[in-house]
User: Which sequence fits this backbone?
């Protein structure tokens, strides 16, 4: 499902006009999509009739949300109240109808069943047939929470979202949901092993040649002659971090070199290091280094 189509369908059943949406291709045929839904309290309860399809939908709440009337396949289901950071699953292969009135701020994550099947095929895990959770349950999972929240900056400015990062989050979510909530064997084997030296060199060269991050996980995997899922696991096993994290660290190190060894402006350094602009460089640099680029440069010149 293209991100535009997903946004349209979210608008149709939620009443939120043009919610911010980001997406990235996962594996061969599936696409991971995320959106942020925000609305104020409605004067009267409104019907949410969610279209059925071959996918799972995760709603992670960013502020508390009370219970409301809810039906799955036409039958009443208890929908537990959710605190901030909690989420619930919707298996869209079943029909879901809810009457909604309270204000909300949530992240909606669209996970196609095809993505689970492809990950299972590439990792030699059994396919999931469903979820080991009942509809309406309020769940708390730090992995789902942190991965979802990591998408907020990208959802704040969808055109600036880096495909490599969005793909990584989507693949991590699919794999985690499979292993923790899917109806698969709990002792299924997980492939181990890292990249060969030539593969690591190829991946690093590609990443450094695309500092903006605008290359896909598929590009890296293809260069290393691996599937996307295998490449993502092997890269982290070799370097200790995901590809987008490795790239983020390299961009900061390059920025430090240019700040300390050149008289270039922040705008020039931001461009050379793959940041959107000087403001973007300053925010990321301060968060990771603990000082603004200007202050860090002045300290090094003393």
Assistant:
């Amino acid at each position: 499902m293209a991100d535009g189509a997903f946004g349209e369908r979210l608008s149709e059943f939620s009443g939120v006009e043009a919610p911010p949406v980001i997406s990235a291709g996962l594996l061969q045929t599936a696409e991971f999509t995320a959106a942020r839904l925000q609305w104020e309290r409605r004067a009267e309860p409104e019907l949410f009739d969610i279209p059925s399809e071959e996918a799972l939908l995760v709603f992670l709440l960013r502020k508390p949300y009370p219970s409301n009337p809810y039906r799955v396949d036409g039958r009443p289901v208890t929908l537990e109240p959710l605190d901030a950071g909690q989420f619930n699953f919707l298996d869209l292969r079943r029909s879901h109808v809810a009457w909604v009135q309270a204000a909300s701020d949530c992240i909606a994550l669209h996970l196609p069943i095809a993505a689970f099947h492809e990950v299972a095929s590439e990792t030699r895990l059994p396919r999931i047939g469903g979820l080991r959770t009942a509809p309406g349950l309020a769940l708390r999972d730090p992995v789902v929470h942190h991965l979802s929240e990591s998408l907020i900056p990208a959802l704040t400015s969808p055109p600036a979202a880096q495909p490599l990062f969005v793909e990584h989050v989507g693949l991590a979510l699919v794999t985690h949901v499979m292993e923790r909530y899917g109806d698969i064997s709990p002792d299924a084997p997980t492939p181990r092993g890292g990249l060969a030296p030539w593969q690591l060199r190829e991946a690093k060269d590609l990443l450094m040649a695309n500092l903006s991050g605008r290359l896909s996980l598929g590009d890296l995997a293809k260069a290393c002659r691996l599937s996307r899922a295998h490449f993502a696991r092997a890269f982290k096993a070799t370097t200790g971090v995901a590809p987008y994290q490795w790239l983020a660290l390299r961009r900061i190190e390059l920025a430090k070199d240019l700040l300390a060894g050149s008289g270039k402006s922040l705008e020039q350094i931001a461009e050379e290091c793959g940041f959107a602009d000087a403001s973007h460089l300053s925010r990321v640099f301060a968060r990771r280094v603990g000082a603004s680029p200007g202050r860090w440069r002045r300290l090094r010149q003393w």
Observations:
- The two ends are 55 Å apart (CA to CA).
- The longest strand covers residues 30-39.
- The chain is about 45% helix and 15% strand.
- Residues 185-191 have pLDDT under 50 and may be disordered.
